[in-house]
Amino acid sequence: MDPLTALTSLGFTEYEAKTYLALLRSNPATGYQISKEAGIPRSMVYEALGRLVNRGAVLTLQQGDTTRYAPVPVNALLDNMRHKYEDAIDVAHETLAHYETLVPLDQAWNIEGRDAILSKARDMIGGAREELLLAASDRTLVDVMPQLQEAHERGVRVRVLVSGDAELGFGQVVRHPQAESVFQQLGQSIVVVADGAQALVGGTGAEDTAVWTGNRHLVFIARQYIWQEMFTQRASERLGRDLWAVLTPEERKAIFGE
Question: Domain tally for the chain?
């Protein structure tokens, strides 16, 4: 991520970000000098400077009729922003607590985008009390590893079907062969079942979608999918060619995709 994007992701406008970065490169500076360094119109520089001063990102120095500007050091700025954000979150929790409502889980709710999907997965894992079933790729497993570790430590039975070589170190782990994962297009898929009460099924790509539900019939199907895949892989590992020999071509194709 480049510096400009890093600042705009924190709520800076493009002109504010360019102005602050220009000051980091050369300071103290007048509005005219900043305009030249940042490559933006002088009128927009002064507007951006005013907002940055109010934000606590820029300091001013008055010398006669001339105002010069300097940036607040990066670490100090980010620490200040973090404290303000955390304080705002605390206030929002208190203010909005009585608005909390229960989402009807018997419906199937669409979730869009990787960040939102992973957020829901982490929330489900964090709320599990007894049993947690997860089917995911290496990359997705890494994304939810802290929550899985915490679930294991509070006594939740963790069972994972992973398509790849990621190490878990706890719980029951069954590996889905890479060739089968590619064949079945499971590379970015995710299935989470928490306490047999709710399920998340979908993908974890940037533009993927997922479905979250507490409908008992859909949850049952998602749970059985993971159990069946885990059983199939464990049976295949233990019986090897003996299992292969007793299967018909149609059964092999249905189970292994071959």
Answer: 2
The predicted structure's pLDDT at residue 65: 86
Q: What is the 3-state secondary structure (H, E, C) of the chain?
A: CCHHHHHHCCCCCHHHHHHHHHHHHCCCECHHHHHHHHCCCHHHHHHHHHHHHHHCCEEEEEECCEEEEEECCHHHHHHHHHHHHHHHHHHHHHHHHHHCCCCCCCCEEEEECHHHHHHHHHHHHHHCCCEEEEEEEHHHHHHCHHHHHHHHHCCCEEEEEEECCCCCCCCEEEECCHHHHHHCCCCCEEEEEECCCEEEEEECCCCCEEEEECCHHHHHHHHHHHHHHHHHHHHHHHHCHHHHHHCCHHHHHHHHCC
Examine residue 248 and state whether it is found in any structural domain, yes or no: yes
Domain membership of residue 59 as a residue range: 3-75
Tell me: the pLDDT tens digits for 198-216?
999 998 776 788 999 999 9
